């Protein structure tokens, strides 16, 4: 496997950064002691919740992986992975490293809270979970270490971790996954009717859309002129109030979107919807019931009418395309919220945590976790 090492920054700034980090860590320790707030942690524990402890090697692995994930999510190119960038201001006096480091920490806390909640059931990992973890570790040796455990250890060391810590992370991740399965079922089938209805009302908007395609390179000048005239006509019509019946009749005459005619009850959109026009989804979720809005996208002009949600639309077969993973999505959001509420109870050993820097740790593109 070919590997490309990240470029590392050096020079005076790096030395100053090290001195400042060390000073900050010492100050934190002194303040904790002076204020009588010093918490006794297990040796090398960075975080603890209940009986679940995260040592420095586990923390480093998670931090390096979540750094890669966050960089991808926020489209931060690898060339910007320098101490200077991470120490620069993100907003309101907070650096990029502090902001993204806090996001990574919240994800790590959620992992250990979920693992502890699983442990509270008093169950050991099932045999199939142990087999999966062992198979995952064997694959890491084969594909990342090219058949050598020592090679894998050398690569892991670049991320401040080791084989045994990666194993402990895999156990923690698996417990979090099993907790969800025990609570809601792997597909969310254990969710209650009350939970489904609350999730639907809190997260979905129902809209109908008239779409005029104006941004199509295949349109002739005369066709484009005709589209613009249609828009002018609709602007005049919508200058007055319009109800759903009137909107439906105009949709049949003007809309270039066949889906609008196919889905008689409208489009059911949430923040997780894969509807191809993101501007329509964003508008639908921000609009008030009864509101009409005109927006433009990369495809053309959209007239959106937001309608009142109908009762239990997710149970109507005619709407099934909009609710393919509804039970799972609802269960996962409720589960994540319950776990997140407990993350503030996680104890953090700032003295140990200061030894691992989000700005300096290498982002991990090689050793993927068993459970993301």
Task: Give structural attributes.
9 strands; 52% helix; 11% strand
Percentage of β-strand residues? 5-15%
Radius of gyration: 26 Å
Largest sheet: 4 strands, antiparallel
Strand segment tally: 9
Q: Which class best fits the helix and strand makeup?
A: alpha+beta
Helix content: 40-55%
Unreliable sequence segments: 1-41
Oligomeric status? single chain
Helix count, DSSP H or I runs of 4 or more residues: 14
- Terminus-to-terminus distance: 22 Å
Q: Main sheet: which strands, in order across?
A: 6-5-8-7
Estimate the mean pLDDT confidence: 89
Could you give the order of the helices and strands? HEEHHEEHHHHHEHHHEHEEHEH
Q: What shape does the CA trace take?
A: elongated
Provide structural commentary.
The protein has 372 residues and is an alpha+beta fold. It is built from 14 helices and nine strands. Helix content is 52%, strand content 11%. A hairpin with a 3-residue loop joins β7 (292-296) and β8. The chain is elongated and about 70 Å long.
Describe the structure concisely.
52% of the residues lie in helices and 11% in strands. By secondary structure, the protein is α+β, with helices and mostly antiparallel strands. The longest helix is centred in the N-terminal third of the chain and has 24 residues, at 96-119.
């Amino acid at each position: 496997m070919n590997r490309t090492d990240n470029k590392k920054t050096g020079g005076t700034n790096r030395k100053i950064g090290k001195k400042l980090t060390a000073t900050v860590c010492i100050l934190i320790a002194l303040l904790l002691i002076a204020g009588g707030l010093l918490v006794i942690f297990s040796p090398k524990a960075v975080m603890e919740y209940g009986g679940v402890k995260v040592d420095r090697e586990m923390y480093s692995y998670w931090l390096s992986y979540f750094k890669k994930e966050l960089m991808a999510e926020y489209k931060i190119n690898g060339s910007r992975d320098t101490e200077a960038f991470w120490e620069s201001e993100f907003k309101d006096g907070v650096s990029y490293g502090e902001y993204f480091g806090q996001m990574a920490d919240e994800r790590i806390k959620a992992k250990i809270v979920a693992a502890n909640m699983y442990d509270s059931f008093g169950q050991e990992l099932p045999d199939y979970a142990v087999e999966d973890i062992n198979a995952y570790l064997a694959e890491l040796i084969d594909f990342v270490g090219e058949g050598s455990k020592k090679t894998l250890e050398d690569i892991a060391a670049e991320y401040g971790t080791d084989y045994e810590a990666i194993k402990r992370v895999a156990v923690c991740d698996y417990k979090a996954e099993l907790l969800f399965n025990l609570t809601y079922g792997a597909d969310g089938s254990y969710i209650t009717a009350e939970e489904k209805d609350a999730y639907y009302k809190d997260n979905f908007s129902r809209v109908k859309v008239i779409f005029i395609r104006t941004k199509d390179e295949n349109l002739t000048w005369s066709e484009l002129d005709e589209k613009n005239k249609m828009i002018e006509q609709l602007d005049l019509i919508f200058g007055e109030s319009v109800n759903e019946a009137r909107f439906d009749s105009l949709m049949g005459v003007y809309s270039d979107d066949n889906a609008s005619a196919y889905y008689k009850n409208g489009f059911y959109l949430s923040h997780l919807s894969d509807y191809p026009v993101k501007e329509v989804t964003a508008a639908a979720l921000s609009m008030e019931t009864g509101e009409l809005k005109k927006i433009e996208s990369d495809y053309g002009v959209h007239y959106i009418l937001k309608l009142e949600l109908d009762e239990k639309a997710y149970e109507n077969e005619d709407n099934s395309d909009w609710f393919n993973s509804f039970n799972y999505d609802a269960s996962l959001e409720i589960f994540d919220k319950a776990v997140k509420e407990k993350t503030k109870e996680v104890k953090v050993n700032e003295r140990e945590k200061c030894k691992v820097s989000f700005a300096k740790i290498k982002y991990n593109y090689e050793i993927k976790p068993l459970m993301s």
